[in-house]
Amino acid sequence: MAELLASLFVSGRIVDGILVLVALEALVLLGVRARWGRGPAPMALLSNLASGAALMLALRAALTGAAWPAIAAWLFVALAAHLAELVIRFREGPSAAQDCDKAAWNNRRWRTFGARPPMT
Question: What is the pTM of this model?
Answer without folding.
Answer: 0.73
